[in-house]
TrEMBL record, chain A:
This is Dipeptide/oligopeptide/nickel ABC transporter ATP-binding protein. Pfam families: ABC_tran (PF00005), oligo_HPY (PF08352). It is found in: Cell membrane. The lineage of its organism: Bacteria, Bacillati, Actinomycetota, Actinomycetes, Kitasatosporales. Keywords: ATP-binding, Cell membrane, Membrane, Nucleotide-binding, Transport. One of its GO terms (molecular function) is ATP binding. One of its GO terms (cellular component) is plasma membrane. Residues 1-20 are annotated as: Disordered. NCBIfam families: oligo_HPY. GO terms for biological process: peptide transport. Residues 29-278 form the ABC transporter domain.
From TrEMBL, chain B:
One of its GO terms (biological process) is transmembrane transport. Its main location: membrane. SUPFAM superfamilies: MetI-like (SSF161098). It is a multi-pass membrane protein. Keywords: Cell membrane, Membrane, Transmembrane, Transmembrane helix, Transport. This is ABC transporter permease. GO terms for cellular component: plasma membrane. Residues 117-327 form the ABC transmembrane type-1 domain. InterPro entries: BPD_transp_1_N, MetI-like, MetI-like_sf. The lineage of its organism: Bacteria, Bacillati, Actinomycetota, Actinomycetes, Kitasatosporales. The keyword Cell inner membrane does not apply. It comes from Streptomyces purpureus.
């Protein structure tokens, strides 16, 4: 919609060779690796992650704290490239363009325009010194050559759209004058002001209380239907994505351990870590203390990732595969069903048996 | 905002009253508590040539024969309406605002201060401009190029700046630039701005830089730390995610937040400096507030010491009031708390 995005192919820029993924894929991530050089060693925050998202589709990304979800999403936006200690490799194809090797200024112009992001804590994610309206206006005017007045009208329209009462008045409020839920709505208004085709929501409801959570998720879903955008919903809580996601990606220690359609991952999960996540999912009809299969132990170090399967120190089934292979060889993602991938050394029949006989009945 | 403004101004006035009362108590209550007789106290004000007549006159003029609260009330009243000092048959008028009378020098305090404030102010304002610009600029560059050669270079210079006292850098600059390479061949002498602005600035340049060097160093380190912190904030990530240019991210989002604490510290430093840049004034022989204060203490000229103290307190309170108002303009959260 604006002129600025039409500079693809500017001199000195790498011309996209060939897009990967299927024809109707909007975002395609291939073997993304993001490592950080730190004083303690090389942090492998993301270590070979691949997935596709189609227009109008929602991909849920789940995994516990530190599994690399945020780093992955910021990597798609190209926000790690300025960090002097970041090493990035792999491919990110957005609407047919490869972004990892593209001109940084070109990627900057796509940010907030074609792809945008909602953050976890809207209070710290918004600038305390500027009004909510000013921040939305700013987001709009980076990518659109319009007057301040027109941008303000647009900001009020967006605030109205995300359900903020009296938007004409609230546009001049500061973030700290909003409630948590209102702030997240304003954040969504800001992210959607340029009608992005890809929206990444990084734990958009974690900082909110339960009733507000549901409202915000509903809002995102409505807006997605309305604009037909692709959505990546990041969360450590499977409950959040249960109703929303078309596809799921389970991350563990910077890697993808399982991905597939939501049905596949929810009803025929193939990875012991996913079983743990499902087991620790809070349910309304059951007491929290009754969690069946909590994931014991702590998340792996990303500097000294355990050899073999990164999950092995915590996996109750680590001894089932023969020859200690689980501790020596990294399991590859293999397809076990139509588009259903998982990375585990256990034989598929064994996993299906454990799931159907031992785990599923207790959930 | 208006309510906040009124509250702050009111607070500042109250603070000044308290400061004046405390200062007054130090000069007049503490000696009483220490067991000094009023004659002894009065004799201190007269100085070497004390005789029963002059002591009696001073005692009467200062109201030392009155209860303390009346003495204080007179002191405050004199500031507003002025006073008449009587020495035998002679009367000396001390016009409002009358901040007392030096019995040793036989001068009113206020005109003495008024004559010196512009010198100290000239010194402070120029130095402040230099240190703010250079300190903040190097701090920002250091933070953005953290760990680079430039950063390490700036921070080493800053460390030197913080460690080297002004009487060293000032003296060095003075001897080098007036004797060794006599760029200021006639020495450095204060010329009032109203007389010749060019000469004013030219003569102040070296004192400005000597004074600013120390503060620049402090401000560079502060700015660097503040900038490093704000550039790691979530709202900076949001600004980048919007697609803003890095220059806008730094200038509009980073610097604005990083500068807030600098404003507070600047207000205090500047207020303090207006009360007298003691060492710089002494090194460059500028007859400002600081040098005058030292001289009066040495001479035990108490009315002047008291006047200088109150003036310094006024500047500090006033600058802090300004800071509060500027702060509220920068950070909207302040206005509501
Ligand atoms: N700039 C960086 N330098 C070094 N390490 C980093 C950097 N950014 C992230 N990491 C590390 O990468 C790991 C993954 O972080 P990430 O924020 O992606 O986790 P997450 O899955 O989003 O977790 P959470 O649920 O807590 O948000 C963390 O261990 C973090 O310490
Ligand atoms: S590979 Fe081994 S350790 Fe890893 S999930 Fe499968 S069984 Fe568990
Ligand atoms: Mg995160």
């Amino acid at each position: 919609m604006s002129e600025v995005s039409k500079t693809a192919g500017a001199p000195g820029e790498v011309v996209p060779a060939q897009r990967s993924g299927t024809e109707d894929t909007f975002l395609s991530v291939r073997d993304l690796r993001i490592h950080f050089q730190t004083d303690d060693g090389l942090v492998k925050s993301v270590d070979g992650v691949s997935f596709d998202v189609k227009p109008g589709e929602t991909l849920g990304v789940v995994g516990e704290s530190g599994s690399g979800k945020s780093v992955t999403s910021l990597g798609i936006l190209g926000l790690h490239r300025a960090a002097p200690n970041a090493r990035i490799s792999g491919e990110v194809w957005l609407d047919g363009e490869e972004l990892i090797g593209a001109d940084p200024d070109h990627v900057r112009r796509l940010r907030g325009q074609k792809m945008s992001m909602i953050f976890q804590d809207p209070l710290s994610a918004m600038h305390p010194y500027y009004t909510v309206g000013a921040q939305i206006v700013e987001a709009y005017r980076v990518h659109n050559k319009v007057t301040k007045k027109a941008a303000r009208t647009r900001a009020i329209e967006m605030l109205d759209r995300v359900g903020i009462p009296e938007p004409g008045k609230r546009v001049d409020s500061y973030p700290h004058e909003f409630s948590g839920g209102m702030r997240q709505r304003a954040m969504i208004a800001m992210a959607l002001v340029n009608n992005p085709q890809l929206l990444i929501a990084d734990e958009p409801t974690t900082a909110l209380d339960v009733t507000v959570q549901a409202q915000i998720l509903d809002l995102i879903r409505d807006l997605q239907k309305e604009f037909g955008s692709a959505v990546i919903m990041i969360t450590h809580d499977l409950g959040v994505v249960a109703e929303m996601a078309d596809k799921l990606l389970v991350m563990y220690g910077g890697r993808c351990v399982e991905r597939g359609t939501a049905e596949q991952v929810f009803y025929e999960p193939q990875h012991p870590y996913t079983w743990g996540l499902l087991g620790s999912m809070p349910r309304i009809d059951r007491d929290q203390t009754e969690r069946l299969i909590p994931v014991k132990g702590s998340p792996p170090s990303l500097i000294n990732v355990p050899d073999g399967c990164a999950f092995n120190p915590r996996c109750p089934y680590a001894d089932i595969p023969k020859d200690d292979i689980t501790r020596t060889t990294r399991p590859e993602l293999t397809e076990t069903g139509n588009g259903h991938f998982s990375a585990c050394h256990m034989a598929q029949e064994e996993r299906t048996r454990i799931w159907t006989e031992e785990i599923a009945p207790k959930l | 905002m208006a309510a906040y403004f009124i509250r702050r101004v009111f607070g500042a006035v109250l603070l000044l009253l308290i400061v004046s009362a405390v200062t007054f108590a130090i000069f007049f209550l503490v000696p009483r508590l220490a067991g000094q007789t009023m004659d002894q106290l009065a004799a201190q004000y007269v100085g070497k040539d004390a005789n029963p007549d002059s002591v009696a006159a001073v005692k009467k003029n200062l109201g030392l024969d009155q209860p303390l609260y009346i003495q204080y009330w007179d002191f405050i009243r004199q500031i507003v309406v002025g006073a008449d000092y009587q020495f035998g048959p002679e009367t000396t008028r001390c016009d409002a605002p009358c901040f007392g009378y030096s019995f040793r020098r036989h001068v009113e305090v206020w005109p003495q201060i008024v004559a010196r404030v512009p010198i100290t102010f000239s010194l402070a304002i120029g130095a402040a401009v230099i240190w703010l610009v250079s300190g903040v600029a190097t701090g920002v560059v250091s933070a953005l190029k953290r760990g680079s050669f430039l950063d390490r270079f700036f921070m080493s210079v800053a460390l030197a700046g913080v460690s080297l006292p002004i009487f060293f850098t000032g003296m060095l600059a003075l001897t080098t630039l007036t004797v060794q390479w006599p760029i200021w061949s006639d020495g450095i002498n204060y010329v009032p701005f109203t007389e010749n602005p060019g000469e004013w600035a030219w003569n102040l340049l070296v004192p400005w830089c000597s004074l600013a060097f120390l503060y620049s160093a402090l401000y560079a380190r502060l700015t660097r730390a503040g900038m490093l912190e704000t550039m790691g904030e979530d709202f900076i990530r949001t600004a980048r995610a919007k697609g803003l240019k890095e220059s806008q991210v730094i200038g509009k989002h980073g610097l604005r937040a990083a500068l807030t604490p600098i404003v507070t510290i600047f207000g205090m430093d500047f207020g303090l400096l207006l009360g007298g840049a003691v060492i710089t004034e002494t090194v460059f022989s500028f007859d400002g507030m600081g040098k005058y204060a030292i001289k009066s203490v040495q001479d035990n000229d108490l009315p002047i010491v008291m006047g200088v103290t109150l003036t310094a307190a006024f500047f500090i309170v006033f600058c802090n009031l300004l800071v509060d108002l500027v702060y509220a303009a920068i950070d909207p959260r302040v206005r509501y708390s």
